[in-house]
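Illustration 12: Helix-turn-helix domain-containing protein.
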Amino acid sequence: MRGVISGMVERARAICDEEFLAKELGLIKTTFFSNGYPAALISSATTYASARPEEQVPSPTVPLLILPYYNGLGEKIERMGLVPIVEQENLLGSVSGST
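Figure caption equivalent — predicted structure in token form:
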């Protein structure tokens, strides 16, 4: 049961801004207490999850490009890293219908 509470606390820490985190943690405690979880367990789990250091996600070293799916295009773009630059224009032209 502790994992469920800790998971909710960690999720709140991941997605909430600092100004809203205290209110969200209070809501989590209230909800679990209303659902019959023991107060000591709720307190222990929230304290444990809140005390863990936040993981720092490294910033990407290369630009990130997010595109909608187009059949075949994503696979060809993925392979572009293996193709010399001169050939890349031909590779993309064949997918879009123009050469």
